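One example copied in:
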Amino acid sequence: VPGSHTITPALFSQQRNLKHMLRLARLGAHALARAPFRPQRLCVTSCWSCDWKAAEPLPKHSFFCPSCNVLQPPCPDRTYFDLFESPAQFNVDVAALERRYRKLQSALHPDRFSLKSDREKALSLGHSSEVNKAFVTLKSPLQRALYLLELLGAPVCEDESLPQDQDVLMEMMELNTRVMDCETKEEAEAVEKDIQQQVDAVTAELSTALDASNKDAAHDAAVRLRYMTKALSKATRNKAILAKT
């Protein structure tokens, strides 16, 4: 229709191919800027506050000097998994994460260090902030997967939000259209349930790929999961809006 803004599949494909080329360029620059994950760098071997020296570095999940109990700087290579004493894998015990989170925040919260030295106050703030970020990341399947891919040296760029496979891309477009076309709460609930099932299926694919260290398959599944998660959020919001009408 003259003057309309309808995007045909062919035009959409051309636009997407151009965007994909730009994303590849950004991904290459992004990958070069990031050093691969290197485990086993030294952690704390001596206390900054007393004369204690260790025969071996403290474990990565340790925070206090075993001699004077003063808070220590973080280990340079400590990962979020190290913080929570969890294996660096996709499938985690969320209940165990929550228990560890409460324990860490109880020990590291800045309020506990209000009467301590300025250095301990700063260290407490840094540790506590990192624990919060780690918990938010590891409890979310999508964020956990993205973090694992980053550790594996295969990060997903921020703007890499669409699948590369054309068939999968069209499925995602149709899914988004279904969300927007819902006119009743019941229709929205059905679409939300369908998307949740697809999210669960892609999450299972992602888990299998990460367990097999298949970075390419995991990368593609993570991009799909990110898109589906956004679609699920839209469907949930749409259902809430329609419930009020």
User: Anything to note?
Assistant: Residues 1-42 have pLDDT under 50 and may be disordered. The two ends are 33 Å apart (CA to CA). The first helix runs from residue 9 to 33.
